[in-house]
């Protein structure tokens, strides 16, 4: 499934703006500084193309624009007044997500104790297989939470939804970068 062309166009527009602002902020950049600026502008462009509608986009912008970081100035340059609106949206929704997670965790705990009582009555092999499967799912969920920006604060359902959206956005980013690289090669060879 390819990402929608409107997402690609929005990403490209914001990425080019970000690159222009990064290059105008410093004249003589080292290779490492250029690499960092390109990655930062691509990440911020990808997140801002989603207009702060997803948790991962707000978390990515909030992580980059933390107080005291060197990138905060560049994020403000790239996003302009939009950066504060997106990070404030994250702060307001983050507390409610944690609260909902606690309530949901209590419900899950109650249900799991009921299931444990039931599985003790079942055959020991079925209980062992179930516990192994649960452990595998838990481990893989933790890995997924570490890969998605802001994933540590999400429940399983929203984690899957955010992961799907993040993958689509990454796919759009890769498609745009590939197209730009192929055009650059064609221009350089002519």
In words, what does this structure look like?
This protein is an all-alpha fold and 190 residues long. The protein contains seven helices and no strands. α1 packs antiparallel against α2 (31-49) and α3 (55-64) crosses α5. The model is unreliable at 90-99 (pLDDT under 50).
Helix content: over 70%
Low-confidence stretches: 90-99
Order of helices and strands: HHHHHHH
Largest sheet: none
Please describe the structure with a list of short key phrases separated by commas or semicolons.
190 residues, mainly alpha, 7 helices, 0% strand, elongated
Summarize this structure briefly.
The protein is mainly α.
Ordered list of secondary-structure elements with their pairings:
Blueprint: H1 5-25, H2 31-49, H3 55-64, H4 71-79, H5 82-121, H6 124-147, H7 156-189
Helix pairs in contact: 1-2, 1-4, 1-7, 2-3, 2-4, 3-5
